[in-house]
Amino acid sequence: MKSDKNNVIDTVYKDYVFSEKKSIDGVKIYRFSNETGTGEMQCYNLLEGIQLSYNNLNMETSYQRIKPKQGVLQIDHCLEGCYEVKLENNKRAFMGKGDLSITEVGKLPFESSCIPTKKYVGLSLFIDIDIAQGTIMKYFPYSNINLFDIRDKLCKNGTALVIRSRYEINHIISELYKVDERIRLPYSIIKTMELLLFLSLVESKDTHNLSSFSEPVYRATQECYKALVENPFERYSIFELARKYAISESSLKRCFSYITGTSIGNFIKNTCIEAASELLIHKPDMSVGEIADLAGYLNQGKFSCAFKKYFGETPQQYRNKYI
Predict the structure, then answer these.
(1) Of 176, 203, 208, nearest to 192 (Cα)?
(2) DSSP label at 120?
(3) Helix, coil or strand: residue 55
(4) Host H or E run for residue 281
(5) Whole-prediction pTM
(6) Exposure string (b/e) for 283-304, b if CB count within 10 Å is 16 or more?
(7) String of b and e for 172-185 (b: at least 16 CB within 10 Å)?
(8) Residues of the chain with pLDDT > 70: what percent?
(9) Which residues, at least 6 apart from 89, have a Cβ–Cβ distance to it below 8 Å?
(10) In the chain, fewer beta carbons within 10 Å around the N or the C end?
(11) For the packed helices 315-322 and 300-311, what is the interaxial angle rounded to 10 degrees?
């Protein structure tokens, strides 16, 4: 592992204020903390000019207005949650579960960013193009990986592009989340080269702009999301929700799926089951049948089946663990 002087994040975001920075067994830990929550990045220096970061954020925003160094590729993959940026045209753009984005740092025109559901899990590759190109030519001379070509092809006009979830991406990226720590460094280098080889073959037609939504659509969807969270036992149809928040069904479904990472139907069902689990613990005087009825299930058997599918155990087994 290279020394901290080759740390790409420290170079790119040198003016960013972290709540804590420290090194543990060669891993650089960056921590965030503000009034909206906390977050952490675990960073590994793979090769000179290339750094891999595992990101776990449980906060509404980690945004700070700084001017990062240009000439760096940032490749992000979202495992869970959603990341939102507010563009200069007042639209909102989203990166959701399974998406891979590629951007040249400092070139994406946006005003701020946030995490709508206060949960984002994913990884990032930070690649200093000038330095990393020399590293690749030194250690992988026959790879024909040209970072400048990848940037020019996939980051036109500085706009981040997203490759929607597909087998090739999942096959490469998924292994990075579960690699044994004993081989993490060499394995991550191999997988990074594999990813860059794949990106060198991707054409612009295989990518899409970050999905964006107008301010009215975004606000209406946020209000809908908030209402569903606060009223987990209410059952709404998509038609009813769209009419209530004065938004088209298609816009609501599309924007909602980016914010939450799931469909409205699944979100309502899962939120209801999670709320029922809270009643099982905190309302011991209520029977499983009463909770099933409150949750809108026709009978206790169907409720128990749905509950076990979600939690892996029956409502009574779940209750017995906590009471």
Answers:
(1) 176
(2) E
(3) strand
(4) helix 264-282
(5) 0.80
(6) eeeeebeebbbbbebeebeebb
(7) bbeebeeeeeeeeb
(8) 96
(9) none
(10) C
(11) 60
State how far the alpha carbon of 44 is from the alpha carbons of 16, 107, 126, 165, 252, in Å.
19, 24, 10, 25, 39
For 249, the token pair is 């069904």
Instruction: Take residue 83 and report the two structure tokens written for it.
Output: 């990341």
Task: Grade residue 290 by pLDDT with cuts at 50, 70 and 90.
Answer: very high
Closest CA to 46 of 104, 98, 6: 6
Structure token digits, residue 308: 């076990």
Angle 11-14-15 from CA coordinates, rounded to 5°: 160
Query: Is the predicted pLDDT of residue 281 greater than 90, yes or no?
Result: yes
pLDDT confidence of residue 1: 38
Tokens encoding 123: 């990884």
Rounded Cα distance between 233 and 243, Å, is: 19
Q: Is the dihedral of CA 186, 13, 22, 177 positive or negative?
A: negative
Looking at the chain, how many residues does it have? 323
CA-CA-CA-CA torsion sign (210, 77, 156, 143): negative
Angle between the 129-139 and 147-154 helix axes, to the nearest 10 degrees? 130
